[in-house]
Amino acid sequence: MTLYEQRQGNFLVSSDPARVDLEATHAYLARAYWSEGIPKELLARAIANSLCFGVYEETGDKLRQVGFSRLVTDCATYAYICDVFILEEYRGQGLSKFMLACIMAHPDLQGLRRWNLVTRDAHGLYRQFGFKEVASPERYMEIIVPGIYLKKE
């Protein structure tokens, strides 16, 4: 996949998989409502098989990951955006908009027929990028296993 990076002030959005901080990403996603308790090994596999975007704060010669998103995509017809977050202390600075703009501008994602995502509380953000409620919900089917990562084997 094409490497894509954009800067805004002292922040960088990058699709470079080598930049993803698995520890930081797992620390957030393991407590997120949609992936609570996700095992780190499972997340690592998901990241390895997805197009990921990190948001990084540049301080001197160091980068700190402060946001993330993951796309399940064939880079031809479809993309599902998931695992989107900006750390709480960095919210309100337009970083989620910056990250979404970078996702939508990525050269490998141009001309897709369908984009999907699921959100509990960020509808306003996604509407700014053209997302709408599902036009024909009767056509969609799903299997959801709530709390799957919290279940003991």
End-to-end gap? 36 Å
SS summary, helix count? 4
Provide the helix percentage.
10-25%
Q: In what order do the strands lie side by side in the largest sheet?
A: 1-2-3-4-5-6
What is the overall shape?
A: globular
Question: How many individual β-strands?
Answer: 6
Can you give the mean pLDDT?
A: 96
Q: Could you tell me the radius of gyration in angstroms?
A: 16 Å
Which segments are poorly predicted (pLDDT under 50) over 5 or more consecutive residues? none
**Class by alpha and beta content:** alpha+beta
Largest sheet: 6 strands, mixed
SSE pattern, N- to C-terminal: EEHHEEEHEH
Beta-strand content estimate: 25-35%
